[in-house]
Request: fold
Amino acid sequence: MQSETFTHLLLPRPEGLYCPAGDFHIDPVRPVARALITHGHADHARAGHDTVLASRQTLDIMAIRYGPDFARVTQAAEGRMDLGGVEVSFHPAGHVLGSCQVALHQGGVTAVVSGDYSRVANPACAPFEPVPCDLFVTEATFALPVFKHPPPQDEIARLLASVRAFPERAHLVGAYALGKAQRVIMLLREAGYDTPIYIHGALQRLCEYHIEQGVKLGDLRPATMDKAEAKTLREAVVIAPPSAFASPWVQRFTDPVVGFASGWMQIRGRVRQRGVEMPLVISDHVDWPDLTGTLRELNPEEFWITHGRDDALMRWAALEQRRARPLHLVGYEDEAE
Amino acid sequence: MKRFADLLERLAFTPGRNAKLALLERYFRDTPDPDRGYALAALTGGLETGQAKPALLRALVAERVDPELFALSYDYVGDLAETIALIWPERGTPRDVPLSEVVVTLSGAGKTELPALIARWLDQMRPSERFALIKLVTGSLRVGISTRLALTGLARIGTVPLDEIEELWSGFEPPYAPLFAWLDGGPRPEVTAKAPFRPVMLSTPVTEADLPALDPAAYAAEWKWDGIRVQAVSEGGVARLYTRTGEDISGSFPDIVERMHFDGALDGELLIRREGLVAPFSDLQKRLGRKSPGKAIIASHPAALRLYDVMTWDGEDLRALPWTERRARLEAAVAGLDDARFDVSERLPFGDWDALASLRADPPDAVIEGVMLKRLDSPYTAGRPRGPWFKWKRDPMIVDAVILYAQRGHGKRSGFYSDFTFGLWDGDMLVPVGKAYSGFTDEELNRLDRFVRNNTIDRFGPVRSLKARLVVEVAFEGLNRSTRHKSGVAMRFPRISRIRWDKPAEEADRLTALTDILDGMGA
Ligand SMILES: [Zn+2]
Reply:
């Protein structure tokens, strides 16, 4: 089969991946008539589409972020659906709560658009489901052989060791509001840290939603204390979106240890650039071994790379004699973590 | 190696001094011998490693990783050791290779054994340990902490005062077993090494306002030279040159060490001197970084000692004697040495403080940064006792500069925009000339922070670029020419002494305010 074989099923367009046969887009970056959304991160799930098809949880998350009227029509994905003669099904991607891969089947050909995905167990979501396919579409955020994310439990153990070594310094952990923040909280709980965890206001709604969905986060308190109160905290962990560290909110803490939970924290230059004292390599994307391992496991006829470090992944494909194609889609954050 | 790698990583990302000390203390407390001893040596630059060239590491990784993938990765990461540490394929079960195993094995290894040895360790390690190992074996470990900071952290594990540790520690070889036994509560060890370092006597600052309370007849005055305070020790045929924190810099200054034909310990200022004239500090800096300087730089930048004091001489400890007696002994001692390399710091004649003030206001040499006052009856006491010795520094130089960039501070100023890059006018452009922060009041800190947030043009990572609106008075101690700075000048110890909310940016100083000073210095 050649790339052309797939083009009635899937095409890169400036607004995102498009399925001509079914006349719909997947994770479009501009408003379209019908959008299928893999997960709730802002670069994949945007407001302004007419009709949106996504997992129940992704629809809920979009409503939290953009308000209940974020689209004219919404439909929760369920089982195998027919969209203009294309059979569509959603499968867990293991990335964040509600994240799915989208599988398209027509005329004996299957294409899978994975969105963002991870192979590391995450109690907030169902594990990545390998769907046999002819065409696999992957991102390549961490597609360099230097990216090998350590077990997240080891990273949390380092954080807790520091919390105990510097009990009077609040440990502020930067983590994105959807997925990463709850992930860090769950890992802390799993490691036996059972005192209240303070969260920045921007994380409130999504943490509540996780709890509603049965994800156990333990005792969460708003990080709205004043300077005097902040001084009395001992062994405190505070989770905040990274942008909060540039806002006056952070000034209530005296001499905090600033951490950041991200796959990028593997690179020392990135740590310094962000002024992070406690880098935590915790990622919800596949690292190099998991990315190449997934491609070997699925062994598709061809794979497409939406964005990221496609040069290294193309080289790997050449070494492995696999057919691959870089799409250079724009609008998806290379930084997304 | 795991603990050591963790320590290095945290030290690298921890900006605060107190937090660094706490990390060092924990490390020295929790790590068994002899690893902590080798770590102390590594942190203070006293480890003889560096057996492997980067090419050896490149060759090892080329056997394991596709060269194109490696090149893409190196290009992205930007540091060879870090790239190799991260990309190295994991094999088998990791083992916590002791630091001592690495140091001891390397010191006995032949050139041909090195590749297999290093590869085996890399196989057994995790990325942060691999990074530390590669930096060690290539001799490129840069921890960025001073010897004094390392020793201060070390002193916290026991009850031995820092200056006693400073006096003794360099008398032992890594892994310093007797030193650690002492800190753990054992007996004070005997130093057997030749020419050990002795803790230095330091001065406290004094201002014009303090002087009337002091009796001018009780003090001697000397110029305060802008070089590096050193201790030259020669005993039993062993000669060593130490910084004032006990770092052995003999290797960098063979032209001094090979001329130390005496038996004793002298205290003085290391300078670059050409035909009797003292060169600016920047000339000395050119020699400081070189572990084994070449003939050319030794000839073009000859080092010299200007001596302040004598601690021991011909087997006699003179430190308890009053300054006047030590001074007489020093003058006698130096008379026998090469006078192009060793001379005695001049004693300044003055009758009262006004007379000294006028000397200080018009020093005969630009490399003088003030005057020193020493009580005539003062013994040589380690540390910084208040009273016997004062430094009366020249008034700082001052320019009015415009704030260009701001970055959030650390520690007490954490979260506030309090670290600034400032610039001076060159034509109608502002050229960055330095970075500084200051102990602002809380009110100023808040007002500055608001200013930064309201006047941001652009952001690069943690740095904000600002509208050219705010003028600050910057005080600094000296100037050097610099090829690393766009402005061509580098300030020494710049700090923001005043915020000029009132002053329009157009009225800030021009770059020529600095270049004129340099031209006047003949630098
Ligand atoms: Zn995502």
